[in-house]
Amino acid sequence: MVWRAGLDAQCNYFNSTWLRFTGRSLEQEVGSGWTAGIHTDDMERRADTYLSHFERREPFELAYRLRRHDGAYRHILDRGTPFEDAIGKFAGFIGCCSDVQDRVSTEHAQARFLTMLTHELRTPLQLLTSQLDMLRRQSQRGVVPTLAVLSKLDARTERIAQLVTELSEAEQAVSGTRLELLLVTDDLCQLVRAAVAEAAEFGGRDRELCVVTELREARLRCDPARIRQLVRCLVDNAIKYSPAGGAIRIGIERRPGGYEVSVTDQGIGIPPEELPSLGRPYYRASNASPDRFAGIGLGLAMAQSIADAHAGRLWIESELGRGSIACFSVPEGLA
Predict the structure, then answer these.
(1) pLDDT tens digits, the chain, 335 residues: what are they?
(2) For the chain, what is the largest distance between any 2 Cα atoms, rounded to a whole number of angstroms?
(3) Hey, what domains does the chain have and what are their CATH numbers?
């Protein structure tokens, strides 16, 4: 998107790419008309930078938000430089703008990820440290640790190990590398029940978890550990975003050529416009603040990778404020 300003620092030209982006005419944009599209929070900073560099006749580079034709504000990177006329006299500035919204969004997501990761690791580490310190003091007095205390240590250690595993597998989810599977024939019903039991033990004790199916067994070719991980991810999410005492229903149904598993909760739901972004590494819905809901945004990305590796499908339906249904389907036979 190209622009040009004369000796008065007012813009007298915008190319067609700029006009398509803003959805405005050249007559509307020239002079200072184009500044109507700058986000109000960026207006003063942009003007100060531009005018000070214009006065000194020095190039500048500046990022700010500009309103697109659909009303959305996009981060753009604006680079301006002085130019001369045919006889070598300063004639104004010419500039070029690039839409860098995707890059900015990625940087923000990475920053949120680091914040959430720090929070997720700090809590179990602090508890683990304090419990070890207590055991150390007790051992000096000859007190033998109880099974309850050792179980707490195991739980904290398992949570840290789980986070490390998620991080080590995140590279595959981010790069799109297909997971390697250890295929055997197993019973999907048993795998689902095992995953639900684990989820109930490590976080779902104050939720009502119910596996509902008319199937006595569901034999399929799969990687049992990965299927349990997939189910555990969906159930853990349902537990996390559901109120205490809420009911979570896990369904298993026969479908042509395979099976479908659904996890229904009564949680906070997901804004409809954000549903297509779920499953993207490090992405979290805007109503899932890290202060209320711990997590690093990798669970659904891994779940998607596992479903893809099994030639299956993962999808989520949701109603904001009323709950979500997370589903995956897998074929009965997998070569």
Answers:
(1) 999 999 999 999 999 999 999 999 999 999 999 999 999 999 999 999 999 999 999 999 999 999 999 999 999 999 999 999 999 999 999 999 999 887 777 766 666 666 666 666 776 777 778 878 888 888 888 888 777 777 777 777 776 776 666 666 655 555 556 678 889 999 999 999 999 988 887 665 678 899 999 999 999 999 999 999 899 989 988 988 888 888 899 999 999 999 999 999 988 888 888 878 777 766 666 666 655 655 556 778 888 889 999 999 999 998 888 889 999 999 987 75
(2) 93
(3) 2-99 (3.30.450.20), 108-175 (1.10.287), 184-331 (3.30.565.10)
1: DSSP letter: -
> Which residue in this structure is represented by tokens 């006749």?
57
Phi, psi of 208 (to 5 degrees): -95, 105
Phi and psi, residue 197, nearest 5°? -65, -40
- Give the CA angle between residues 289, 105, 178 to the nearest 5°: 90
